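Collaborator request log, item 7. Partner lab (contact: R.S.) asked for a structural prediction of Deaminase to inform their binding assays.
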Amino acid sequence: MRKLSYFIGMSLDGFIAGPDDEVQFLMDHLSPAYLEYLKTEWPETLATAGRRHFGCDDAENTHYDTVLMGRATYGLGLKDGMVDPYAHLKTYVFSRSLAESPHPAVELVAGDPVAKVRELKRQDGLGIWLCGGGNLAGQLAEEIDELVIKTYPVLAGDGIRVVSGEFGPRPYELTGSRSFDNGAVVSKYARKR
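Returned to partner:
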């Protein structure tokens, strides 16, 4: 069965974006060594335009072949004209407000996210990447098998939490961690069942 991984960047205080969907404050902490790590270890998590820019557009998907995101996360790229931000992955956008997909390769899901993820887990393929946002992560909390958290050395104070939803502790086990010269730390956790 395929795994659902929440691979996400966040501030030290647990925010994935600012109150108005700002993410640049996280991107300000990229460095050549850190970008090289993402290019070689997690190439499918770079947007298609980023893959071209960094010269890794021919890289094979190593972890994921499917990406899930909420409407707000999808909207970040959409406002810059990226109608299919991850053309190298099968893309699902969970939204009750979008009536029609801006791109034929992007499938809109208006129904129950949990039911859709369970359906996807039963299919053959690589892992499933939940790339945002916090609301969708909260709805899918029971289905998240793995966390890959890129923690950046900045406090946000307010914004969109990494997971939004009702209180419900879910234990994870640290399976790996790597720190970088830019102060970022990438930590990987497996769900304890």
